[in-house]
Amino acid sequence: MPTIVVAMRSDTIKGRSIRPRSRRPKQYASNRVCAQEGCDTLISRYNAKDFCHGHAPKRYPRVRGRIMESAEA
Ligand SMILES: [Zn+2]
Question: How far is the CA of 14 from the centre of ligand 1 (A)?
Answer without folding.
Answer: 38
